[in-house]
Design a protein that fits this description.
The structure is a single chain. The chain is an alpha+beta fold and 125 residues long. The chain has one domain: HIT family, subunit A (2-Layer Sandwich). Helices cover 23% and strands 20% of the residues. It has three helices and five strands, in the order H-H-E-E-E-H-E-E. A hairpin with a 3-residue loop joins strand 1 and strand 2. It is globular and about 40 Å long. The two termini are 26 Å apart. Bound molecules: guanosine-5'-monophosphate (5GP) and zinc ion.
Length: 125
C-alpha cells in the first residue's frame, strides 16, 4: 500500500467498511439496521470475532461528536444482544476499539471488536 492509498483510507469513497456497508465487498453480516452493521472479522483472533460499526463514516473515536452519542449507545446494546445470541454473554468477552497509529487501528472507519469464545487472559496488551 502506498502513501496515497493510506490517505485514501480516511475518506469514505475508499473506505473498505463503507464498501462492505454498500455490499460492494462481501461480508458475513450477523446484524443490520438503519444505522449499524455487525459482521464477522475476516481474520478472527478468537472463536467469536465480530466487528460492529456505525453506517455513518467516522474515522475513529476522535471524530465523534454529541450527535453520535445515540448510535454509540445503540452499538453497545447490539453488542450485548450479539454476545447473548452467540453464547458468550455468560462466559465473557472483550470489546476493543483500536484508535490511531499507536492504538493499532488499521481500518479508518470506527469499529468495535467483539471478541470471545475462549479465555482471553487478563492482559490488556
Ligand atoms: P483494526 O486493527 O483497525 O482495529 O481492525 C481492523 C479489523 O478489520 C481487523 O481485525 C481485520 O481482520 C478486519 N478486516 C480488514 N479487512 C476486512 C474485510 O475486508 N472484511 C472483514 N470482514 N474484516 C476485515
Ligand atoms: Zn467508512
Amino acid at each position: 500500500m502506498d502513501d496515497n492509498n493510506k490517505e485514501g483510507e480516511n475518506n469514505m469513497q475508499d473506505c473498505i467498511f463503507c464498501k462492505i456497508i454498500k455490499k460492494e465487498i462481501p461480508s458475513q453480516p450477523v446484524y443490520e439496521d438503519n444505522e449499524i452493521l455487525a459482521f464477522k472479522d475476516i481474520n478472527p483472533v478468537a472463536p467469536v470475532h465480530i466487528l460492529v460499526i456505525p453506517k455513518k463514516h467516522l474515522n475513529s473515536i476522535n471524530d465523534l461528536s454529541a450527535q453520535d452519542s445515540e448510535v454509540i449507545g445503540n452499538i453497545f446494546l447490539i453488542i450485548k444482544k450479539l454476545a447473548a445470541e452467540l453464547g458468550i454473554a455468560d462466559t465473557g468477552y472483550r470489546v476493543v476499539v483500536n484508535t490511531g497509529a499507536d492504538g493499532g487501528q488499521q481500518v479508518g472507519h470506527l469499529h468495535y471488536h467483539l471478541i470471545g469464545g475462549k479465555p482471553l487472559g487478563t492482559k490488556i496488551c
